[in-house]
Amino acid sequence: MGFLGEFxxxxxxxxxxxLAVGVVIGTAFGAITSSLVKxxxxxPLGLIISKVxxxxxxxxxxxxxxxxxxxxxxxxxILYGNFMQAVMNFIIIAFAIFLLVRLINxxxxxxxxxxxxxxxxxxxxxAEIRDILKAQGGGEASSxxxxx
Length: 148
What we know:
With about 150 residues, the chain is mainly α. It is about 65% helix and about 10% strand. The protein is built from four helices and four strands.
């Protein structure tokens, strides 16, 4: 199989397609949470905390140089308000992922807790004979061959 054949086999595997779908949905989810934080959560929070717009919060390290009404050198500032919004985005996304993983784990636990299907009599007898042989001869038959 040539290089292109191997790549085609790799690319059409279910895992790669699932990953691609996950990336697209994750990107859309990121945009939704960014909007949620920026447009829904932060404005009321800023209103509660003395009418502050978080996107405008910054620490100016060097003021802009303006000559004749034109900016010659832009200001140098730390935009900690934008950072606070990014942290809020992260917390919301992390919480949503936590809830999803928690739901998946609980579903798996319920599946694992289901009783195993009953073993038929023949399999049960064979397992008992195997255990007796192991106990008697240390797992070896009389001819010296290993019992499997």
